[in-house]
Design goal:
The structure is a single chain. The chain is of the alpha/beta class and 312 residues long. It is 42% helix and 24% strand. It has twelve helices and eleven strands. Strands 1, 2, 3, 4, 5, 6, 7, 10 and 11 form a nine-stranded mixed sheet that branches. It has a two-stranded antiparallel sheet with strand order 8-9. It is globular and about 60 Å long. The model has no long low-confidence stretch (mean pLDDT 95).
Length: 312
Amino acid sequence: MNISIIIPNYNGEELIRKNLPKLVEEIRNYKDIEIIIVDDRSTDNSVSSIKYYVSGVKNKEIKFKILENKTNLGFSSTVNNGAREAKGDILVLLNTDVVPEKDFLQPLIKPFNDESVFAVGCMDKSIENGKTVLRGRGIGKWERGFLSHKRGEIDKADTLWVTGGSGAFRKSIWDKLGGLNELYNPFYWEDIDLSYRALKSGYKILFESKSVVLHEHEKGAIIKRFSSFRIKTIAYRNQFIFVWENATDISLQFQHILWLPYHFLKALLRGDVAFFLGFVKAFILLPKIIKSSFKAQKVFVKSDYEIIKEFE
């Protein structure tokens, strides 16, 4: 299988300098592999640093592509731009703050021998407040009108989603599903959305604990660039988008409407302005969300209930 590794970058000059050589060293023995770095209109010296490093790489088996967005677009659009240029059968998405550990690639790619597999997620050694938390497998359930998701134990191979920061995706199915939904720009929920749509379309999503990466979340661009209030607002907005696009079971739609007054009251009592702002921002996008939902439903073969019952 040909492999395309896609790295979205925004002001990640320091991380690129540190982590890109580690990735190149890890994949040095592979053939038919390319690294596509997509810069989302950085304001630091990321692009020049990347070009300088690439010019010095002597391993000609590894092909590099450097793409530059003309404007700052956000995560979904940046990754989609890379995917459109990719020649590989498998897309491996790695954030700039992700460092692959030894032999991470082979176990990540092996499950794709099954043609029904769409995506496989790595085990993230996530550095959070000085501690290492093992992530990568997600579970969830519909409750009180929303999809509630959380970290799952890593002793199973099933997962509700594969993160866009460290996972592999079959390009043919990626293209069929339309890639990441750009309504979620600048970040959050886009990988859960894509995985959920894939599951409802009848494809498999897997977690591979033998494919290990180190994920330094606190060094990523989101925390450095956005205030906690704006991050929270975007997360709320995208949570609404996810429900309005993907909850196609009538019972779930009814539950969502029924529980909204409860959520509004709770947000009011705790003074959560971000919740209300997130709702308004999502509501403004409602015509686009409905259009996106109808398009996604054309390939759905499973109900929401069928998907979630496996993780409850």
